[in-house]
Amino acid sequence: MGFHDFMRLSLGAVFSYRLRSFLTALGIAVGVAAVVLLTSLGEGVHRFVLSEFTQFGTNLIGINPGKTTTVGVSGAIISNVRPMTLEDAEAMKRIPEVTAAVPVVQGNAPVEFEKRSRRTYIFGVGPEAPAVWRFNVAKGQFLPPDDPRSPRALVVLGSKVQNELFGTRNPLGQRVRIGGERYRVVGVMESKGQMLGFDLDDAVYIPAARALSLFNRESLMEIDLLYAVGAGASQVAERARKLLIARHGSEDFTITTQEQMLEVLGSILNILTLAVGAVGGISLLVGGVGILTIMIIAVNERTAEVGLLRALGAGRRQILALFIGEAVVLASIGGLAGLVIGTGGAWLLGIAVPALPTHTPWSYVVLAELLAAVIGLAAGVLPAVRAANLDPIEALRAE
What is the pTM of this model? Predict the structure, then answer.
């Protein structure tokens, strides 16, 4: 049997039983489409979360009070043995590679103007926050350099807070009340959007020392360091560690580089993408069972055909290859249809729901198609062996 005859018989068997072939290929198509669509969602979430974390830059180091031996934010942000002070933040600026250091205190309080009030995030920061966090001022200016221990009562509004309290009025120079104290508005930030569910525009920025007093805290929640491009994160982190140990007498703090955070986050998100892909893979296995069932039925229905082929001189290997080839063709056709459905569905989902990030990882697409072919091959082996082992005389009598 030549290759041309082999292909003609394999394709002929597929297209001769159109409904059966369609239903068989549909099972594989659904499985591949599920893999592609789910991994597209997983990869989209992966890229979205990483972009959210890197919108503030990648050359950042965060220092939190309290020592932790696990990855993540320290559990002693608010209360610890040795408070993290404004002087610690100023000392960080003496590290040669550090270009800016921002003390951070965060809380929640109402902001009032005339008869309007809005409860929002209050960030106590230093004047270098826009450079470190990649914020831009839309109106006025950010908090000017001042005495870090007794700064003036100045405030910068987020864009949403400005719209809620002032509408179309110019807020610059106006007085707002925060926690019973009056602050003069010196600036309004550009819209930054949301980060992991937090609306960064629904916030106001005041000097860190005033935030410590407002929320009755002794320790900063964090110190963010911006280091020069090209400097090694580990080297800067080590210098910051030694400096703080010298100031505190012990390592009662946790230093986390952006690289460490992204590495841990990336590994978690990779597992998430793999997990959702495995869920879709279950559908592929179900499709493989469908191919196995259909091919066993096909062998029973085509017993006489097998006997005729054997009588005409076809060997067992050729019969084996014929049925395996038919199963692979069905799986491949279903796989291609699944790719079209999966990638098209991910694209349409991204257009219909812009807030839901999707990105089709082509490595998973190729893997899904190869897996479909392998499943078709594996599912076709048992029926093919059964067909190849049929006795030619008994098979001809089945007619």
Answer: 0.62
